[in-house]
Specification:
It is a single chain. By secondary structure, this protein is mainly β. It has no helices and eleven strands. The strands form two sheets. Strands 2-4-9-10-6-7 form a six-stranded mixed beta sheet, with no helix packed on it. Strands 1-3-5-8-11 form a five-stranded mixed beta sheet, with no helix packed on it. A hairpin with a 2-residue loop joins strand 6 and strand 7. The chain is globular, with a radius of gyration of 12 Å.
Length: about 110
C-alpha cells in the first residue's frame, strides 16, 4: 500500500502499517511531524520525501529526494520532524527510531 500524506496528516500524527507501506511526505514545513510504526513481520516501511527535501538520519543528511527504508521487522518505527535550520531549506529529521533504517536511495 502506498500513501501520499497531506500537510494536515503530518501534524503530530502516528501512521500504523499493517502491510508493506511507502509513505510520501509533503514538502517539509517547519514543525510538521509524523511517526510511522510497523505492526507486521516482513513488512518493510519506506518513507519518501518531496523533491528538494532531505531526510537527516543518524546525524547524516541524505541526498535530496532520498527515502529511508525499515528492515521490515515488527516494531520498527521512525519519528520525523521538519526543521528549517537555515531559513531557506527545511529538512525532515529522524528524531527517534527503533529497528534498522537505511538510506533507500532515490527513484
Amino acid at each position: 500500500t502506498d500513501a501520499t500524506l497531506s500537510v494536515a496528516q503530518v501534524q503530530s500524527s502516528w501512521i500504523f502499517a499493517t502491510a508493506s507501506l511507502t509513505l510520501t511526505l509533503p514538502a517539509a514545513a517547519d514543525g510538521a511531524n509524523v511517526c510511522v510504526f510497523s505492526n507486521v513481520v516482513g513488512g518493510a516501511v519506506t518513507v519518501d520525501v518531496s523533491a528538494g527535501d532531505a531526510i537527516v538520519l543518524n546525524g547524516t543528511t541524505l541526498v535530496d529526494g532520498h527515502r529511508i527504508d525499515s528492515s521490515g521487522s515488527r516494531g520498527d518505527f521512525a519519528c520525523l520532524l521538519a526543521v528549517d535550520v537555515d531559513g531557506t531549506n527545511p529538512n525532515w529529521f529522524v528524531l527517534g527510531q527503533s529497528g534498522t533504517w537505511v538510506d533507500g536511495g532515490g527513484f
